[in-house]
Design a protein that fits this description.
This protein is mainly α. Helices cover 81% and strands 0% of the residues. It has 9 helices and no strands. It is rod-shaped, with a radius of gyration of 27 Å.
Length: 208
Amino acid sequence: MFELLRPGGAIMIPILLCSVLALAIILERFWTLRIGKVAPKQVANELWGWIKNKELNSKKMKALKESNPLGRILAAGLSNAKHGRDIMKESIEEEASHVVHELERFLTALGTIAAVTPLLGLLGTVIGMIKVFAQLQLEGTGNAAALAGGISEALITTAAGLAVAIPALIFHRYFIRRVEEIVISMEQEAVKLVEVVHGDREINSNGV
C-alpha cells in the first residue's frame, strides 16, 4: 500500500489524515447514534407508569435526567410543568436544541472532509501535471520514466481524494438522516408528555 501511495507525493499526507479522521468520526457516530442509547422506548414507557401510578419523585426525576438524551428532554419539561403549557414547551425546546447539537457533533467535520478531499486530489493532479510539463520542457519526450512518474502522481492523488470523499459524503448524509429520525421520535414523546401532564391525553395499560 505504501509503495502504491508513495508516488502521490506530499499531497497524499493530508488525504491520508482526512481518511483516518473520517473513519474515526464514522465509527464514533455509529456508536453514539444508536436509538437504544439516545431515545430508548423503555424510558418513556417507564415514565408513563410513574405518572399513572403517581410514583414520580425527585429521585426518579434525577434518574430520568441522567439516563439518556430523551430522558433529559422529558425531565426538562416535567421540571417546568407547574409553570404552564407554554413554559413547559419552551423548556423542552431549549433542552432539545442542546441535545440536537450533541447528536450532530463531528458531522460538520465529516462533511468538510467530503468536500475538501476531492480538491486535495485535484491539487495533486495539477502538481503532477506541472511536473510533467516541466520535465518535457527540460528533457523533451525522451525521459519516459520521469513523465510516467508525474502522470502517476496526478492519477493517484485524484483517485485517493475521491476514494475518501465518496464514503465520507455517503455517511454524512446517512447520519444527518439518522439524527432527523431520532429528533422526530423524541419530539413525539415530548408532545405526548405535554398532553398527559395537562390532561389532554390519557395513559392506558400499554402506555400513551
